[in-house]
Queue: 4 jobs
Job 1
Amino acid sequence: MQIINDIPLRGEPCCVALGFFDGTHTGHRRILTSMRSYAQQSGLLPCVFTFAQSPCAALGKSESQALRTYSQRLSDIGEISGAQLCFAVDFMKYREMSAEKFADEVLIERMNAKAVFCGFNFHFGKGAAGNTQLLRERCEMHGTDVFITEPVCTGGEPISSSRIRRMIADGKVYAANALLAKPFSIPGAVVHGKENGRTVGIPTINQPLPDGFVVPRFGAYASFAVIGGRRYRAVTNIGVRPTVSGCGVNCETHILEPVSGELYGENVVTELLWFERDERKFPDLDALAAQIHNDIDHITQLGIYEKLGA
């Protein structure tokens, strides 16, 4: 999938999925796969229009915490949608554009869209004034079809990125992963820590949370560490490491299987599977190590790794 950071003057006739797609959850997947199927049947060029940065983050709003990094999100979009082009543009260049102008000039004139796909709650244009009804009206004036994906619900509530953020912040990652159709993951390079775990036989790798990322509930989790494409069983602590007077939110993972080679500087993806317990301060490192062993025993008894594909 080719990433383009601006819109051409006139492109090949296309069908396009619209949205930010943070998390690429099951609702997003329905939009993207619908566009993919239509492109295959119609012979139109499959495309996605999104923003490089979320509108909330660009405007400094508190609900801007991301479920996926920019590169993760675009990788998901490409894999799910089969899009040949992804227009990942700067939100600030479009924030003052009216909804009518966006539909007429961007979608119809410049992108040459013949079919448009979006979710039921899609809003666009200055002040998010445009809705799906306006989108349909403007597009159909030009003979462009609009396909609105109805909400995908679980527990009587639509699946949404904001709902999943709340679940992760509450430690409900097992349930959140079902809505994401994949484990919530924290990517990043391994950095040097204090290496206290080595002194009690529990070496760990440390990763800072990506900037602007949603912060999971502080505590211990069953996890996978994905290294070089392989998933290793692990336990992860998210928090500030109060037992060793840590500072700053950190993702600290103890891998349960042998890993060859030095991991410092390596990019590791830590997948959170199950919230085991809250973070708390222990009297010393030995007490912390004993609790981690208890966590491992309990997670193993529950069969979390087997249930999730290890």
Job 2
Amino acid sequence: MKYLLLVHHNENMFKSMPEGTRKDMLTESIQLCHQLNANHQYVHASPLQPEATGTIVRVRDGKPMVTDGPFMETKEQLAGYFLVDAKDREEAIRIAQRVPGARIGTVEVRPVREINGLPGE
């Protein structure tokens, strides 16, 4: 079953960390991806650009509303994700515990709904 591991942390705190620490966390994340790939658990992963670079699109009563970021007054922002293939929730949680971002923020573990008819199936 596929699980989306949503990595949240405080962007300002992350930016204030020494550059070497940030680079080490990225290197560790890449190594985790290679370990997951060797175990046939890796699907995809990527950090996200800062929240301020995002755009929110809503359609209400047929009218689109587009809002540039930042969006919410929150302590943590969505920083990246890992899409993994795990046998169950417990295994997905064990993977989430290895995500470097879990040490400075949170990792939300969400099962992905499987639906038929998508491209590539």
Job 3
Amino acid sequence: MFPDDLSYTDKHEWIRVGSENIARVGITQFAADALSDIVYASLPRLSDTVAKGDACAELESTKSVSDVYSPASGVVTAVNEVLAATPELINSDPYGDGWLFELELSDPAELDGLLDSEEYAKLAE
């Protein structure tokens, strides 16, 4: 149910590390379903420095506004500009086109404490 190539937080974010310590961040399908219809995404700015565990984005749904917490520390290198016009992508494709932002990791060892897909599935039960 949850992709094996991702690491997860207990606050329902995912992170996928690519080349050269650049990591893509989003929320899980579980979180997207819980939020319901996402109508607005407030994302960090390019070059923002974020720390692991810090609230760095907000998602507004028809139900509530929820913070998104960074799963790792680093500098924001990209944001998903498409979400400004189509935030519903977060609901329909949270692991693909609904990603939120990318980070250049400052300490890749921080990822060691995150959950794998099996551990996250148990948390999401």
Job 4
Amino acid sequence: MANFHLLRGRVSQVDAYYSITAVVRDRRPLLVQGDNAGILRDELQRVTREGTADTLAWVAMPDHLHWLFQLRQGSLGRCLQRFKSRSARAINLGAGSSGPLWQGGYYEHCLRSEEDLRTQARYLVANPLRKGLVTRIEDYPFWWCRWISGATDLV
């Protein structure tokens, strides 16, 4: 169950831009093992194909996901519930396991202007650098951004 404090003040608005963080249950470092990041990428693309959201950027850290998108239809909660459910099923299937993958709830931030999008995208994509996972973003394979192709785009 989601923490009540995460729900306080949450508003879901079609066409709004959101930056969310979803955390793996018990902070297990599962997202960069095997093809789990590929599964996340595929599910994010599926959300876009279905017209629920337009993905602008994402980065899979070992134990959490950052996702920047524009909500296109439905509610924010439903969008995240479907993504988390489908990605958990696919990751569990690949691992031959079962049970919850994600912590309940998620952290979200609604961006107020389109000007903030690229700043937020650069911040998300730079996470592996700040955490010391790589020294060059080009060496980290678990991210994508509409506007960024390498380190020169981070400045």
